[in-house]
Design goal:
Layout: H1 10-13, H2 16-19, H3 39-69, E1 143-146, H4 168-171, H5 174-186, H6 191-198, E2 204-207, H7 220-229, E3 238-244, E4 247-250, H8 259-267, E5 271-275, H9 282-295, E6 300-306, E7 321-329, E8 331-336, H10 355-358, E9 361-367, E10 372-375, E11 380-384, E12 391-398, H11 404-422, H12 450-466, H13 470-484, H14 492-496, E13 505-507, E14 510-512, E15 522-525, E16 531-536, E17 539-544, E18 558-562, H15 567-576, E19 581-582, H16 600-609, E20 613-615, E21 619-625, E22 631-637
Parallel strand pairs: 1-2
Antiparallel strand pairs: 2-10, 3-4, 3-5, 5-6, 6-12, 7-10, 7-12, 8-9, 8-11, 13-14, 15-19, 15-20, 16-17, 17-18, 21-22
């Protein structure tokens, strides 16, 4: 093949210094061993908690009967509010209003830190002893869209991958499919209108009058089956909680969540929170896997089952965009404005609030099956069930720590790493006396040495920004997405055109059913966001999410290495998606090494066998072992 006139890939000429990834220490939370407690003691503690709950439940039933006889309406006091665990956040949902903990905020995966970093000078008055004035926020006006009741309009299918064989699954763009799923969630609101007028700005409430709209996603019956058929563990997979008389409590015993134990807690007034339900529910997995392709970041979920007349969580706000989908029963929600600009799109979730902290609600409404409620991160919320019915809802969370600020953190870190090696100005020593005139204690001094020092800092910042490796920083930002992503859910047609549909086997020592790609076979990536090329020093790493677990971050980040000269061919597959390209086209992208070009069929075969590619048509292989030990392969393409 001729190599002249070929595009020189960025991967073949990248600078090692600019693209080298600084070694980053991975730090995890170290769990302190719990103090040893005799097993009998633990059992007695659990039995004691449940006994108290039962006694409390009996007492409440008596009080409720008295209140109902007196005509008391609107049981939305603090003792009925849904609140998050401060010490163990789950997938979170939030909105742009005041801070309050609600169920929506609890959709964040465990392990995320909520602690805010406090400056040692936060209590210091402004210059001259003047008090700092906090600007006030204009009240956010939520949008409530009430659709006309349609008695025959209950039917709806979840807008996720179906189990049927369909040519559409072989042609569609996974990003567009994710957008279609999101469009179905917020219908009849348009996606473009949502991002222009609603997203990160104000809550959105959709009253559908279609009880069956979300029926296919999840049900309390499915939860019951999950408890029976799976090793669901308290604290790791499920919580039982109460919020009464302004006190938020988690009543988790240790060990497996046996159905009888969970339902006994529920009968005695506890809310049941299922963490990361996609681990057990295929339909939830389908929904979230589609949405993550559209949002380009981790999309999580929690499910909440709340008994009648109770509240499981306190008022609070979260650090995620929250989408509440009502599945069964009813839930009464209250949303509140943020109290200060610092609470608009916060980086961390809040602690629990009291009613005195949050003022008057900007939205006070009841969700029924088929309804949707969205609120941005930072919006204070709380929710409770009416006395006559239970509630089952799923909270979908997105956009956690996926901001411009998070990207800039990577940009500046990598830029500093590069510029310190390339520019001697960053390696020169600081003035010997700079501590005598720089620092908070010296900021009010009229010292002539301060101005040149500040100018020097400004000059260095200018040089730093000129060296900013923005694309490399975006690659590093993407790795968190790939680590947290769910693996794709494949339709039957997709499986049949990929390595997952093969029937390779060995019987009596003879191998059959192996597929070997040829140069005329049409191929494409399995999903738009299935892999990421990241150059590191003298090699290129291919990160992917295909082998991820449905359990949040259960596995390490998955990757494999390829030589830099092969990267342009993989890049070509990325740019061509969702179109199929012949295997032979990859040869036009490969760079010669020692006047030789790698075999494109070898590269395609490697990607195919790793599950990252699918073919346009199902390949019908026929492989056998000959008597002389040579492997004979014949491939017939079915069209």
């Amino acid at each position: 093949m001729q190599s002249s006139g070929k595009r020189i890939s960025a991967y073949a000429v990248f600078k090692a210094k600019q693209n080298a990834t600084p070694k980053k220490e991975v730090r995890g939370k170290v769990q302190k061993p719990e103090a040893s407690t005799p097993i009998a003691g633990l059992i007695r503690q659990g039995q004691g908690k449940l006994k108290k709950l039962r006694e409390s439940a009996r007492s409440k039933k008596t009080k409720k009967a008295v209140k109902r006889s007196e005509g008391t309406v609107g049981r939305l006091q603090a003792d009925n509010m849904d609140v998050n665990d401060d010490d163990r956040p789950s997938s979170r949902l939030s909105s742009r209003t005041r801070p309050t903990r609600t169920e929506a905020a609890d959709s964040k995966p465990r392990g995320s830190s909520q602690k805010k970093r406090k400056s040692p000078y936060t209590t210091t008055p402004d210059k001259g002893g003047r008090k700092k004035v906090t600007p006030t926020l204009q009240p956010t006006e939520p949008i409530a869209k009430r659709l006309k009741y349609q008695e025959s309009g209950n039917e709806s299918t979840i807008a996720g991958p179906s189990s049927s064989v369909s040519d559409n699954s072989l042609k569609r763009d996974s990003h567009q499919h994710g957008k279609d799923v999101f469009s179905w969630l917020i219908s009849p609101f348009k996606v473009e209108d949502y991002f222009k007028n609603i997203f990160e700005r104000k809550p959105l409430f959709l009253k559908r009058h279609k009880p069956g709209y979300f029926t296919d996603i999840f049900s309390s019956k499915e939860l019951s089956n999950i408890l029976k058929e799976n090793d669901v563990q308290f604290t790791r997979n499920i919580d039982v909680t109460t919020y009464t008389d302004g006190k938020r409590e988690t009543h988790n015993p240790t060990g497996r969540a046996q159905p009888q134990v969970v339902w006994d807690y529920y009968n005695n007034g506890c809310s049941v929170r299922v963490l990361n339900p996609q681990s057990y529910s295929t339909r939830v997995w389908q929904l979230l896997a589609a949405l993550q392709e559209f949002f380009g970041c981790f999309v999580g979920a929690n499910i909440y089952l709340t008994p009648p007349g109770t509240q499981g969580f306190a008022p609070h706000y979260d650090d995620i965009e929250a989408f509440v989908l009502q599945l069964e029963g009813k839930k009464h929600w209250k949303l509140y404005n943020q109290r200060s600009p610092a609470e608009v799109l916060p980086r961390f979730s809040s602690s629990n609030f009291t009613d005195a902290d949050i003022g008057q609600p900007i939205l006070d409404t009841t969700l029924e099956p088929g309804d949707l409620l969205y609120f941005p991160r930072g919006v204070v919320h709380q929710a409770s069930t009416p006395s006559e019915t239970h509630s089952l809802h799923i909270t979908i969370s997105a956009c956690q720590k996926n901001t411009w600020g998070d990207l800039m953190e990577h940009v500046l870190t990598r830029a500093l790493h590069v510029v310190r090696e390339e520019n001697i100005d960053f390696r020169k020593s600081l003035p010997t006396d700079y501590l005598n005139y720089m620092g908070v204690a010296h900021e009010d001094l009229d010292d002539e040495r301060r101005q040149p020092f500040m100018k020097k800092i400004g000059d260095l910042f200018s040089k730093l920004l000129k060296s900013a490796p923005i694309d490399a920083a975006a690659d590093q930002m993407s790795l968190e997405f790939f680590h947290t992503s769910l693996p794709p859910v494949l339709e039957e047609a997709e499986e049949s055109c990929s390595v997952f549909g093969e029937s390779a086997s060995c019987r009596n020592g003879k191998v059959s059913g192996i597929v070997q790609l040829g140069e005329d076979d049409q191929i494409r990536l399995l999903r738009r966001n299935i892999l990421r090329l990241v150059p590191e020093e003298d090699k290129v790493l291919v990160y992917h999410s295909l082998e991820n677990s449905r359990v949040f971050k259960e596995k390490e980040l998955q990757y494999f290495e390829i030589p830099p000269e092969l990267a342009p061919a993989v890049e070509h597959l990325l740019h061509s998606y969702p179109d199929y390209v012949p295997v032979s086209n990859l040869a036009d992208q490969l760079q010669p090494v020692n006047d030789e070009i790698a075999d494109p069929e070898d590269l395609a075969q490697t990607l195919y066998e790793k599950g990252l590619l699918m073919t346009k048509f199902k390949l019908e292989p026929s492989v056998s072992s000959s008597s002389d030990g040579h492997r004979e392969v014949t491939i017939h393409q079915s069209r």
